[in-house]
Specification:
Blueprint (H helix, E strand, L loop, with lengths): L1 H23 L23 H24 L1
Length: 72
């Protein structure tokens, strides 16, 4: 009985080792798809929102500096 207890897991591992390569090679590699061209430029509107945020940050910073100098 102990022999069968060690035999079946070994047989299962052997079957897996023999059958897995067939499953891995079952699909064709294919053509690989189209060749990639030049990537399209990303349309990022940096001029609109970023410049407004920069101007608002500068105005807020100047306001804080003026208030700090008046408090002294």
């Amino acid at each position: 009985m102990k022999l069968l207890h060690h035999f079946f897991p070994a047989l299962g591992c052997l079957a897996l080792a023999l059958l897995l390569p067939a499953a891995v090679l079952a699909q064709d590699p294919g053509s690989g798809g189209p060749t990639p061209g030049a990537p399209e430029p990303t349309a990022v509107p940096l001029d609109g929102g970023a410049s407004l945020l920069l101007a608002a940050g500068a105005a807020y910073g100047l306001r804080r500096l003026r208030r700090a100098s008046k408090a002294r």
